[in-house]
Design a protein that fits this description.
Elements: E1 5-9, H1 15-24, H2 36-42, H3 51-58, H4 70-91, E2 94-97, E3 100-103, E4 111-113, E5 116-120, E6 123-131, H5 147-160, E7 164-170, E8 179-185, H6 188-206, H7 218-229, H8 246-284, E9 289-293, E10 298-302, H9 313-319, H10 321-327
Parallel strand pairs: 6-7
Antiparallel strand pairs: 1-3, 2-5, 3-4, 5-6, 7-8, 9-10
Helix pairs in contact: 2-5, 5-6, 9-10
């Protein structure tokens, strides 16, 4: 281990140039790279991307979907200086902005672009700034840290050859009550395990051996497969499945048949509810609440308006066709459907 190589200063770079440097280095001479945010994906612990999708992106077969959660990502980026400020206030240490792109001394594919470095009683360390919503604040309760972030800062410590990293996360405006600060100390045994796994991923890239979706959250797997394969091609021949797929396909067919029956039952029930509600609604008039009290119980009744605001797409398309095309977002989703038919 040794001090990292400083490849370039990314401050002031366009996003396109920054991405180029992260993917292949500033001179374009690194075939494949791994960054801090990639590590949890390699381990299958990234909630937003599968290892196969990352593989496809590294091979240049799949583009990054910058539109997904774009506003949330931008807000997180804009909030980094705020989180860093309050971290410095609370910890009383020097916070150093660092826009360098660093390369691991022994693993040329490992690149780190930090948020900040810090200088305190324990010497220099890494500071990684996060934001979240109050709904996810429990992920930081009782000194815990989301594990995909732990993998990220362990990678940063290895690249930078530093002994500790602090994670600072905010989910509100009160830095006393709505901010978590957690320290992760360097562990070289865990570090060795991480880089063994990263070596395997780089080897897959070099030998054209894509990872499978084994162990990936099913919803994430289906979303990424739709991105990878895109729209279907009707002219292609039918796939002949082997016997090993029979159990799964029959189960899919059974569940989908059950769901269809449930949907029909729900639709039937809703029609009856609507028919029975007419006289009740007439009696309610402008009132929002009512009740029926019996000797055994009470039935609470509500008749409350629910307002929904959404753009009139037809009007927008008619009066502002250019704007309509600009804001129009096309998404591709595909769903497996199985149906058992007698021969």
């Amino acid at each position: 281990m040794g001090a990292p190589n400083l490849l370039c200063d990314t401050k002031g770079m366009t996003r396109e140039r920054w991405l180029e440097c992260r993917e292949h280095g500033p001179d374009g001479d690194i075939e494949y790279t791994i960054g801090g945010s990639d590590v949890s994906t390699v381990f299958g612990e990234n909630p937003w991307m599968s290892p196969l999708a990352l593989y496809q992106m590294k091979k240049g077969l799949l583009k990054s979907d910058d539109s997904e959660n774009a506003n949330r990502k931008m807000m997180g980026h804009l909030m980094e200086p705020v989180v860093a400020y309050w971290y410095g206030v609370k910890k009383g240490v020097q916070v150093i902005e660092d826009a360098g792109l660093y390369q691991h001394a022994d693993y040329p594919y490992a690149l780190a672009n930090l948020d900040y470095r810090i200088l305190g009683d324990d010497g220099y360390g890494v500071l990684d700034c996060k934001t979240t919503t109050w709904r996810n604040a429990e992920e930081w309760a009782e000194d815990t840290i989301p594990h995909h972030y732990v993998l990220q800062v362990r990678f940063y410590m290895a690249v930078m050859d530093l002994d500790y990293a602090d994670l600072a996360c905010m989910w509100g405006f009160d830095a006393e009550k709505e901010m978590a600060i957690r320290r992760v100390w360097r562990d070289r045994d865990i570090e060795a395990m991480i880089f063994e796994r990263l070596d395997e991923f780089i080897h897959r890239l070099r030998t054209n051996d894509p990872p499978t979706m084994s162990g990936v959250d099913p919803e994430l797997a289906m979303k990424d497969l739709a991105r990878i394969y895109g729209a279907s091609q009707p002219a292609l021949p039918s796939i002949a499945f082997g016997q090993k797929h029979e159990k799964a396909l029959r189960r899919i067919a059974t569940l989908q048949s059950d769901n269809a029956e449930l949907t029909n039952r729900i639709n039937f029930n809703e029609k009856e509810v609507t028919a029975l509600s007419v006289k009740i609604a007439q009696m309610m008039g402008n009132h929002e609440r009512g009740e029926l009290v019996t000797a055994a119980d009470r039935i609470d009744v509500s008749y409350i308006p629910r307002l929904t605001r959404r753009p009139n797409s037809e009007l927008l398309k008619k009066n502002h066709p250019l704007v309509f095309q600009e804001v129009l977002k096309t998404t591709c989703s595909r769903k497996v459907k199985a149906e058992v038919k007698a021969l």
